[in-house]
């Protein structure tokens, strides 16, 4: 058979890379076979125009092509295995597609990083792409690797404590969070007073849109899951529980308790659920957060860009294929990590591909990753 607290400080947070260079004028995707004079390694190389910030480019490893699929068509298609958009990569499986593709990190390229996980600039800048391609030819033991697929990941963390004796959860009252509302311009500092398998109580103070400080009195909102329900949604602006399934609902917090699916989460409106611009900053110690006078300015430092939205995660996000700004040039540098792609996790005889991302500027500008891949085996 095939295998199958995050804490943010106030002034230290990672900013999402939004852009590198200019948009490419080359709208073509280019496929070729790599076979250099310096290496005997043969592989398929595919240059992908993924510069659009909204459109995904869907790739078939089996044919070596970028497929002409809309997002709607891709949702039910099993012809693609990976999709690319700027630096992001998603899989046709899990929450991102109807396929059964799964991926494992096969070669972590640990020599590219120091003992604390920091990029070794010299190693990155002196790496030879052709030499690094040799990792594509290794016959990896798939049974020894940890495969996974796309899964939704809430940005809101560390909000409950679990009692291993009673198997109950309770609110983590020692911490709090800053929440950006669905409208993208209203904020609240939020504390949890109650959180269990049926009930939630939040206590919050709001910073109105287009202002820079909290105002008004602290408010409390409680809600109980309906019988057989697994989610409820709260609108902090209206201080009310609202319908999660209402497309026009401007809910700000989605409370999910699905013990059957082992899902115990808090989601914001946007990223995974909802069409809003919700996000969260924290976890922050409760006593520290209580002293905050603003959700966007802390000690004269603007933290508004440091809020995190919910997202999907997979081995490409958990083990990034690049480092950024190594020589103050605001560029991406590939680390040539090798990933093992299992085309069908339900079929022991399905093909495996080894894959690397070797470049981010293959078509002359940012947002054009070059991937190279090779069929490793057919089954086990």
UniProtKB/TrEMBL annotation:
A Pfam family matched in the record: HmuY
PROSITE patterns, per the entry: PROKAR_LIPOPROTEIN
Keywords: Signal
InterPro entries in UniProt: HmuY
Residues making up the signal peptide according to the UniProt record: 1-24
Protein name (database record): HmuY family protein
């Amino acid at each position: 058979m095939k295998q199958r607290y995050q804490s943010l400080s106030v002034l230290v947070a990672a900013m999402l890379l939004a852009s590198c260079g200019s948009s490419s004028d080359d709208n073509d995707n280019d496929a070729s076979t790599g076979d250099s004079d310096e290496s005997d390694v043969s592989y398929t190389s595919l240059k992908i125009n993924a510069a659009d910030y909204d459109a995904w480019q869907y790739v078939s490893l089996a044919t070596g092509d970028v497929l002409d699929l809309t997002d709607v068509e891709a949702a039910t298609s099993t012809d693609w295995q990976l999709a690319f958009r700027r630096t992001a990569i998603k899989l046709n499986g899990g929450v991102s597609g109807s396929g059964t593709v799964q991926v494992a990190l096969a070669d972590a390229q640990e020599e590219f990083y120091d003992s604390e996980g920091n990029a070794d600039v010299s190693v990155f800048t002196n790496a030879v792409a052709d030499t690094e391609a040799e990792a594509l030819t290794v016959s990896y033991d798939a049974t020894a690797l940890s495969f996974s697929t796309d899964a939704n990941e809430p940005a809101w963390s560390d909000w409950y404590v679990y009692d291993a004796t009673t198997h109950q959860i309770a609110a983590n009252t020692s911490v709090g969070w800053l929440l950006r509302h669905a409208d993208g311009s209203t904020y609240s500092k939020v504390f949890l007073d109650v959180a269990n398998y049926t009930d939630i109580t939040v206590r919050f103070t709001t910073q109105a849109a287009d202002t820079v400080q909290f105002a008004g009195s602290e408010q409390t909102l409680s809600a109980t899951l309906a019988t057989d329900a697994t989610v409820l949604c709260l609108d902090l602006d209206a201080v009310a529980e609202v319908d999660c399934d209402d497309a026009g609902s401007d809910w700000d917090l989605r409370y999910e308790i699905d013990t059957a699916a082992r899902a115990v989460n808090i989601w914001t409106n946007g990223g995974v659920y909802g069409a809003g611009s919700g996000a969260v900053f924290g976890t922050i110690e409760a006593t520290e957060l209580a002293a905050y006078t603003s959700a966007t300015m802390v000690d004269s430092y603007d933290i508004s860009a440091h809020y995190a939205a919910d997202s999907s995660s997979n081995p490409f996000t958990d083990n990034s294929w690049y480092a950024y700004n190594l020589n103050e040039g605001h560029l991406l540098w590939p680390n040539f990590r090798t990933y093992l792609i299992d085309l069908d996790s339900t079929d022991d005889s399905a093909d495996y591909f080894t894959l690397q991302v070797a470049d981010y500027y293959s078509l002359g500008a940012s947002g054009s990753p070059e991937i190279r891949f090779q069929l490793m085996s057919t089954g086990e």
